[in-house]
Design a protein that fits this description.
alpha/beta; six-stranded mixed sheet; three-stranded antiparallel sheet; globular
């Protein structure tokens, strides 16, 4: 997947602009930036969830994508178990496939409790398991470390790298872990707030390739 000079304008305001990025198989690309820089909006735009204002996105029509959103609220009014969440939209998955992805993310001993009883770290691992259940060619993670304690941050980062290597999928991650970003990423996209300028100026986004 690649994007050329893309931008999104909402409510008379540019959320981000002049973004160029590409993610190839087996490649880890990270998006970083301060609050209000449009990181999540950029990810959703790349996925086709938000329409482009300008620019172009190229991706295969048959591209299989696994997506972990920044936030997913599970209401306790509608109880949902671990297995039920995993099979939503994946009804054809066999039980052994579900057990395998739970093993991959280290939740094989969890059982099938209500999702609302999970810790923040367990929930993020569960969402990662759901994302890889379809063996995606592109894995998109919007701040996957959100709600994860410091002790488990490195474990989850290493897990993402392991999944990339085993599936040989491209991985696009929004992250605040700057040290790991520059240690592990093949490419880094830095977004900065772009709240004004109708006139195109120097590109405020830079990429760093290893």
């Amino acid at each position: 997947m690649s994007a050329d000079n893309i931008g999104v304008r909402l409510s008379e305001r540019w959320i981000f602009r002049y973004v160029n990025v590409s993610v190839a198989s087996g490649q880890l690309v990270c998006i970083i930036g301060g609050n209000g820089a449009g990181k999540s909006t950029c990810v959703k735009t790349l996925l086709g969830l938000i329409p482009l204002t300008e620019g172009k996105i190229d991706k295969q029509k048959s591209l299989t994508i696994g997506y972990v959103p920044q936030k997913l609220a599970i209401t306790p009014i509608l109880p949902m178990t671990v297995y039920r969440l995993l099979t939503l939209g994946n009804h054809r998955c066999a039980r052994r496939e579900i057990e395998h992805v739970l093993f991959v993310v280290g939740l094989e001993k969890l059982g099938n409790p209500l999702v609302t009883t999970l810790s923040g770290g367990e929930f993020q691992r569960l969402m990662l398991a759901r994302a890889i259940l379809r063996k995606p060619q592109l894995l998109v993670l919007d701040e996957p470390l959100q709600g994860v304690d410091i002790a488990n941050t490195d474990i989850l980062n290493d897990l993402i790298l392991t999944i990339r290597d085993e599936l040989q999928c491209g991985v696009l991650v929004v992250s605040h872990d700057i040290e790991r970003v520059f240690q592990d990423a093949d490419d880094v996209l830095v977004l900065v707030p772009h709240e004004h300028d109708e006139v195109k100026t120097d590109n405020p986004v830079w990429n760093r390739s290893r």
